[in-house]
Amino acid sequence: MQTQQSVLEIDLQALTHNYKFITATLSEETKVMAVVKAFGYGSDAIAVARKLIDLGVSYVAVAYADEGIALRKAGITLPILVLHTLPIHCERIIDACLEPAIYSSDILAHFHTVAQKKKQTDYPVHIKFNTGLNRLGFGKEELPYLQEKLPRMNALKVASLFSHLVASEDPSEAAFTQHQIKQFKELADGVEKILPHRPWRHQSNTSAIFNYPEAHFDMVRTGIGLYGYGNSDALNQKLRPVATLKTVITQIHEVAAGETVGYNRAYTAAGPERIATLALGHADGISRAYGNGVGQFLIQGTPAPIVGNVCMDMLMVNVTNIDCKAGDEAIFFGSEQPAATLSKRAHTIPYELLTAISQRVTRVIVNA
Ligand SMILES: *Cc1c(COP(=O)(O)O)cnc(C)c1O
To answer: Is residue 1 part of a domain?
Structure first.
């Protein structure tokens, strides 16, 4: 069935394939945290989380509290880690039984106060260390502070200790990554020794799962790999894109040499050409960076380059050499034209292209 509007197809069989491919690299004891932030990397966080829970993940991670609340409303009962805890969200986090990442003395003190106010004991929290990203996390100079405070905070229980790698996909940064792994171990040891229990440890994102088995620890956090991209050509070959972005040709114009197409007359036809208008624009997440030939669609399996500037709700492609008509389907990314290939042409990464697809595009689950 050809699509008659813009849709983002979410292929749950591809998701299953990716999950199995990723977990095949892990030891039996290593648990998996599925990262479904940003609407499941632009797909459908609820459908993806449900499928992965069936497949056996132990934890789900989101960036912000409201993303976790949406999962709870959908009936997901698995533990949910909120990676970026903001002070204003702490009450909501507890009300929805979400588990905060605690990355600074301020957020620790604030969350502890809120947990006490809500009469909590042993509320699970996750201590995040900064080992080089310099984004979120306690530094090594704060270890004595943590050692002093954590054992006294009865409202809280340290469920895990974690950190995030800077460049796990980049072999030229291997020495830095090894250093981060060593730092993390030292910090985790330092906190663990003052606790009456042993919290889980986790440091690996998708690329680290494949490149640094010594950083698997108790659990790994995988995002992009589940969605079918692995930050390397070799891995991209083995994983399957979960999301396919499709749309439809709504009109075809025959233009003569010298006529221009689109806003600001950015494209001039070299000869008689056929220009197809598609029902996707920058408001749907096709950045203007893909305009003027940087991006292309597949129509009847043939590349049709974007001509001129991407408009808000539409864009135009050159179909001079393609036997097509209004109503035909046009594919932007998917297995035939991976988001990794397209995003590279626009000097960005699949993470950005996938998460940019706006909520205006209907999500359709396939191969459930
Ligand atoms: C987004 C994120 C991940 C997932 O990374 P991928 O490269 O998509 O596997 C893991 N950990 C943290 C802290 C993140 O923010």
So the answer is: no
Indicate whether residue 35 lines ligand 1 (CB < 6 A).
yes
* Nearest-angstrom CA–CA distance, 289 and 100: 36
Domain boundary among 199, 229, 259: 229
Mutate to test the pocket of ligand 1, among 15, 35, 212 (most ligand atoms within 8 A of CB): 35
Average pLDDT over residues 221-239: 97
Provide the pLDDT for residue 2: 85
Q: Give the pLDDT band (50/70/90) at residue 334.
A: very high
Q: Is the distance from CB of 218 to CB of 31 less than 8 angstroms? A: yes
Where residue 312 sits, what CATH number does that domain have? 2.40.37.10
**Beta carbon of 223 within 6 Å of any ligand 1 atom:** yes
**Percent of the chain scored above 70 by pLDDT?**
100
Catalytic residue among 31, 149, 157, 263: 263
Q: What stretches of the chain show up as alpha helix (H) in DSSP?
A: 12-23, 37-41, 45-55, 65-73, 90-95, 105-117, 143-149, 174-192, 206-211, 233-238, 339-345, 350-356
Structure tokens at 268: 């001039």
Nearest alpha carbon, ligand 1 atom 6 = 223
37 is catalytic: yes
For the question of residue 41 being annotated catalytic, the response is no
Residue 60 lies in a domain: yes
Q: Judge if the beta carbon of residue 224 lies within 6 A of ligand 1.
A: yes
**Which tens digits make up the pLDDT trace of 277-309?**
999 999 999 999 999 999 999 999 999 999 999
In contact, 249 and 322? CB cutoff 8 Å: no
Q: Under a CB-based contact definition with an 8 Å cutoff, are residues 247 and 286 in contact?
A: no
Q: Tell me: do 252 and 155 sit in the same domain.
A: no
Distance, CA of 118 to CA of 109 (rounded, Å): 14
Domain at 68, CATH number: 3.20.20.10
Pocket test for ligand 1, best of 102, 164, 352 (most atoms within 8 A of CB): 164
